[in-house]
Amino acid sequence: MQTETKYAIHFYTNNMKKILLFVFALTLCMGCKAQETVQLPQPEIGKLSMPLGKILQERRSVREYQKDKMVDLQTLSTILWAACGVSDPASGKITAPSAMNMQDVKVYVCNKMGVALFNAKDNTLTQVLNENIMQDLAGGQNFVLDAPVTLLLVSDQGNRRRNDQFAAMDVGYVSENIYLACQALGLSTVARAMMNKEAIRTKLNLPEGVIIALNHPIGYKK
């Protein structure tokens, strides 16, 4: 009985810490002024240790999520690192390949409270919009609204001549990393191209040269 009680207290305490960390970060980063920045927890890379063969075998696109079960900030940090985080600080190399090492794919973290930009180098989130753009991301597919968080992938090739083929390739690498990380962490996702791109471009103030490519709603399977 004592063992069960200790386990219950430990489970409750750990989960409350995760919930409080998530709420605290959202309060700082997704309910405040634009350009405010929050430091993400260090990604838990060890939690991505599921055998690759098993991940590939079990990975599926999922379109039904538990709308009331949040993705805590620690888990989000691990997914973002897997997507295109820095894997070698000495060289600045990231987890996803890219044409000519442009590292052109940028990831925006979106939820009902707003939009933040993931900064891979510093492992931070910077608030860029205090507005709910989930309807624009859903593009008429309302299952997206049930996901607690959606990652928006764009290709920003800077001053280089725009290359749509490179953009498609590079976004695809990041998208697959998100799929694999979600599967390893017990979450679900689906890659989507359907969305109101013009509305998103306007609200995020993205230049025409930035290619809005895909979005990934992420949550726990219903």
- Shape type: globular
Q: What is the helix content?
A: 25-40%
Strand order of the largest sheet: 1-6-5-4-7-9-8
Could you give the count of β-strands? 9
Poorly predicted runs are: 3-24
Order of helices and strands: HEHHEEEEEHEHEHE
Class by alpha and beta content = alpha+beta
Radius of gyration using CA atoms only: 17 Å
Helical region count? 6
The description of the largest β-sheet is:
7 strands, antiparallel
Mean pLDDT: 89
Distance between the termini: 32 Å
> In percent terms, what proportion of residues is strand?
15-25%
Short summary:
With 222 residues, the protein is of the alpha+beta class. The chain has helices spanning 2-29, 52-58, 73-84, 134-138, 164-185, 197-204, and strands at 37-39, 86-88, 93-94, 105-111, 114-119, 124-129, 149-155, 188-189, 211-219.
Tell me about this structure.
This protein is α+β, with helices and mostly antiparallel strands. The protein has helices at 2-29, 52-58, 73-84, 134-138, 164-185, 197-204, and strands spanning 37-39, 86-88, 93-94, 105-111, 114-119, 124-129, 149-155, 188-189, 211-219. The strands form 2 sheets. A 7-stranded antiparallel beta sheet has the order 1-6-5-4-7-9-8. The protein has a two-stranded antiparallel ribbon with strand order 2-3. Helix 3 (73-84) packs antiparallel against helix 5. The chain is globular, with a radius of gyration of 17 Å. Mean pLDDT is 89; it is low at 3-24.
